[in-house]
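Protein modeling request. Please complete all fields; requests missing the sequence field cannot be processed.
Requester role: graduate student
Desired output: 3D structure, token encoding
Chains: 1
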Amino acid sequence: MKPRVLFYVQHLLGIGHMVRGARIARALVRCGFHVDLVLGGVPIEGLDVGGASIVQLPPVKATVGFSKLLDPNGEALSEVGKAKRRDQLLGAFAATQPDIVLIEAFPFARRQMDFELLPLLECARAASHRPLVAVSIRDILQRNRKRGRSEEAVEIVERNVDLVLVHGDPRLVRLSETFPLADRFAARTAYTGMVAPEPDGLAPVSEHDVIVSAGGGAVGGALLRAALAARPRTELTDARWLVVTGPNMQADAEAAARRLAGEGVSFARFVPDLPQRLSGAALSISQAGYNTVADVLASGCRSILVPFAAEGETEQTDRARLIQARGRAIMVEESSLDADRLVAAIARVRMLPPPQTDIDLGGAAATASLLMDKVAARWRLMVPSPRRPL
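Delivered output (390 residues):
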């Protein structure tokens, strides 16, 4: 019988959480788990989850700054809507009786979802067949802006969580550098390496020379406009450009970018084989989200990173600075982004040596292997040893 994982993933603004979650789900299935993937965001067409069973909660999204939860119609999520999601999530837990509950981001992020995740943790803790509870987080966390939030997260971990999986390489950055209380749960923390594309999925697709991408697209309009305005002034003006707007980009922002595009520029809202396309490209211009950086590092594509930094966001800037310090990319601050700076950055990045990385990129497979080892150890403890004859 396969061990069972209930894996909760909620994307709110971009699609990075879901892309990373899909990579982990595929690795779990390959490793021999039955995966029930609980999704709480707006569905993404074309996303490969590797045969995992999908539990789709009534979808929600967030405003920029994550201050409000909205339903797909843009209305504030009501108490009735929250209760419906919570009850469906707890029903999925009761129906599947998982060996592992794996929760992406919470309690270090996604605190807006505590109305359903705290009850899930309570159910897991009280279950007669108590599952292993694990949390899946990025290498770099958003620095907390609200007093007491870090302490609250640690208290939730200490009470409910058996394992904190940090999807990063400690040689690049340790969790304590962006979460100062990490030592409080160091004994239950494991680093997996970055969750990058599977090596067998990196065969180059050489259809485009320059790829400009905006993650989920909700906040990427300025990046696309600056890149396309810079294009005629660079040595790459005659190259083949692909602009990936993201599924969440507003129509007016996409239209403004298209007005700047000329011959040789293609547009797509979502590209499921982006890592392969990066492997065949000469340059990537993007934000500095976790998955995009993992794709760039795995592909070996030269990169310009423009980290999203509005509304006090720190995570992408921290990551971009680390990658630039290793000589793997050129960073352009979002606050100073314009065509002039991108023209200069393109000239600089083309002078860098071919990118090579010594960063551990095997996070998906390592996560699956580690969780299988944990389940196997638990099953051995739960099965009594045969009684010896007297």
